[in-house]
Design a protein that fits this description.
Layout (H helix, E strand, L loop, with lengths): L1 H5 L5 H13 L15 E4 L2 E5 L12 H14 L14 H14 L3 E5 L2 H12 L5 E5 L4 H10 L2 E5 L4 H10 L7 E6 L11 H11 L2 E5 L14 H4 L8 E5 L9 E5 L1 H10 L1 H5 L5 H16 L2 H20 L15 E7 L1 H13 L2 E2 L1 E3 L9 E6 L6 H17 L5
Parallel strand pairs: 2-11, 4-5, 4-6, 6-7, 7-8
Antiparallel strand pairs: 1-2, 3-9, 8-9, 10-13, 12-13
Helix pairs in contact: 3-12, 4-12, 5-6, 7-8, 13-15
The structure holds pyridoxal-5'-phosphate.
Enzyme class: transferase
EC number: 2.3.1.47
Function: Catalyzes the decarboxylative condensation of pimeloyl-[acyl-carrier protein] and L-alanine to produce 8-amino-7-oxononanoate (AON), [acyl-carrier protein], and carbon dioxide.
């Protein structure tokens, strides 16, 4: 049956594009994890040191979180049975939202199915076509999609360049539409930190709404992982804070924090909230338990930063380009190793894997053409021995391929 479908002409343009990727050397196959996310795990039947997951604090496999998921499944079943606004709001959903709001020190919180839907659903619903979005050029795809769906006019500023953002704000100063300034707290491909404080100043100066996407900052930056707003002491200055439950928190989901009215509005207008089923009890219970761990075990975050500092220092010492696109380079547990050419990067990643290291190659269109890189992520759970072994594999493989000379 499958073979008859593949001979039909309707989708041949897709095959042609895949062939193009193969020619460029950037076509990939999905690596398949045989066991669970951990510093050492098994992909495609091969045991490797894992520098590729967003499992910053090792929570994906935490026994307490697994237990919370199992208990919630026993108590409440495997699904919520409806979208939140019809019949799918469970007590446990409200409990998680209240917990996050307290943690973030804001009035209210709404949880979405993912960070992606949190961003896309929020940006698209709070603005209309007479409005303006002032957006960092490296903001996450979910912000860009939300911006497009809103039909607002999008003004893109150079990466982390608050002065450029101000120029754009000046140009539209006398336009009647609302203005939204939006930045990632931590940029996911470069690991650098957005200028949240400077953008807050601009938002106040020009009467703009301020929004920060803290997907990679949640659980990583600020006190107990409260994020970039805490890191910059910008409490009360950011109207809309987005976070994810899929990275450091270890499970799945996204959330928006802000005023009661913002959250109430999103309950009424955010399309993923209205038209897509809410989390199963297991996911929600896992997230609740994870926030308890963030509050009770700050030493996880300390270990994450110790490992990060050591790994970066050693990468630089070996001579790798861990540059990022701006100065300063990566300031977080995400460290890119810039290779440049897409094919060379993918070859490097495959060779690393063969030598026992999982570190994903990332090329265009996820990062700009010519900026292909190996993206590494440190976690609190990597031991010094594992990090040293990873560095050794990186060094030897890079020398063999002529990436280090
Ligand atoms: C990962 C990520 C998201 C999406 O979060 P998910 O919960 O995985 O959907 C949004 N924004 C940024 C900056 C991210 O890195």
């Amino acid at each position: 049956m499958a073979s008859t479908l593949s001979s039909r002409p309707q989708l041949q343009h897709l095959t042609a594009q895949l062939d193009e990727l193969r020619q460029k050397g950037t076509h990939f196959r999905l690596r398949v994890l045989d066991d669970m996310q951990a510093p050492i795990c098994t992909y495609d039947g091969k045991q490797v040191i894992n520098l590729a997951s967003n499992n910053y604090l090792g929570l994906t496999a935490d026994p307490r979180l697994r237990e919370a998921a199992i208990q919630a499944t026993r108590d409440y079943g495997v699904g919520s049975g409806a979208v939140r606004t019809i019949a799918g709001t469970m007590k446990i959903h409200m409990e998680l939202e209240e917990k996050i709001a307290r943690f973030k020190n804001v009035e209210a919180c709404v949880v979405f199915q993912s960070g992606f839907t949190a961003n896309a659903g929020t940006v698209s619903s709070i603005l209309g076509k007479e409005d303006f979005i002032i957006s960092d050029e490296l903001n996450h795809a979910s912000i860009i999609d939300g911006a497009r769906l809103s039909r607002a006019k999008i003004k893109v500023f150079r990466h982390k360049d608050a002065a450029h953002a101000e120029e754009l704000l000046k140009e539209i100063q006398n336009e009647p539409g609302r203005k939204l300034i939006i930045t990632d707290g931590v940029f996911s491909m470069d690991g650098d930190i957005g200028p949240v404080d400077k953008l807050c100043d601009l938002a106040e100066k020009y009467g703009a709404i301020m929004m920060v996407d803290d997907a990679h900052a949640s659980g990583v930056l600020g006190k107990n992982g409260r994020g970039s707003i805490d890191h910059f002491h910008c409490h009360g200055r950011v109207d809309i804070q987005v976070g994810t439950l899929s990275k450091a928190i270890g499970a799945l989901g996204g959330y928006v924090c802000g005023s009661k009215d913002l959250i109430d509005f999103l309950y009424h207008r955010a399309r993923p909230f209205l038209f897509s089923t809410s989390h199963p009890p297991s996911v929600t219970a896992t997230c609740i338990a994870a926030f308890d761990i963030l509050e009770q075990e700050p030493e996880r975050i300390d270990r994450l930063w110790e490992n990060t500092r050591y790994f970066k220092q050693e990468l630089a010492r070996l001579g790798f380009d861990i540059g990022g696109v701006s100065t300063p380079a990566s300031e977080t547990p995400i460290t890119p190793i810039i290779v440049g050419d897409g094919r060379r990067t993918m070859d490097f990643s495959r060779a690393l894997f063969d030598n026992g290291l999982m570190a994903t190659g990332i090329a265009f269109p996820t990062v700009p053409e010519g900026k292909a890189r190996i993206r590494t992520i440190m976690t609190s759970e990597h031991t010094r021995g594992q990090i040293d072994q990873a560095l050794d594999i990186l060094d030897k493989t890079a020398r063999k391929l002529g990436i280090l000379v």
